[in-house]
Amino acid sequence: MTLDFNGRTLELEKAFWTLFPGLCKGCGLCVEKCPVDCIDWSDVLGVYGTPSVEADNRCIACGICQNVCPDCAIRIDKRKKLIN
Ligand code: SF4
Ligand code: SF4
């Protein structure tokens, strides 16, 4: 198994959504807490060889997943913040 300590950024409509697979333990807390249910399991493996996660364009860039992840495996950058 190779671990990926680089961020994997998804360019979604409202956010640059970055997951660090080498930090994700696959606990599912972000999946549980996302208010729009836009996070699902990914083919990219996390730190324990379990699936990591990814979001889709339903993301509203609220930042909850970033805040609840116990391992700081998600980073949310709102698009308008970067453009301004
Ligand atoms: S930023 Fe909010 S809406 Fe987007 S994936 Fe995270 S919890 Fe879900
Ligand atoms: S990103 Fe964080 S909260 Fe989500 S499954 Fe991975 S470790 Fe758990």
Q: How would you describe what is shown here?
A:
The protein has 84 residues and is α+β, with helices and mostly antiparallel strands. It has a domain at 26-78: Alpha-Beta Plaits (2-Layer Sandwich), CATH 3.30.70.20. Helices cover 18% and strands 31% of the residues. It is built from three helices and five strands; from the N terminus they run ββαββαβα. The protein has helices at 29-33, 64-68, 79-83, and strands at 8-11, 15-19, 39-45, 51-55, 74-78. The strands form two sheets. A three-stranded antiparallel beta sheet has the order 1-2-5. The protein has a two-stranded antiparallel ribbon with strand order 3-4. A hairpin with a 5-residue loop joins β3 and β4 (51-55). The radius of gyration is 12 Å and the shape is globular. Residues 34, 36, 38-39, 55, 59-65, 76 line the site of one iron/sulfur cluster. One iron/sulfur cluster binds at residues 24-30, 52-53, 69, 71, 73-74.
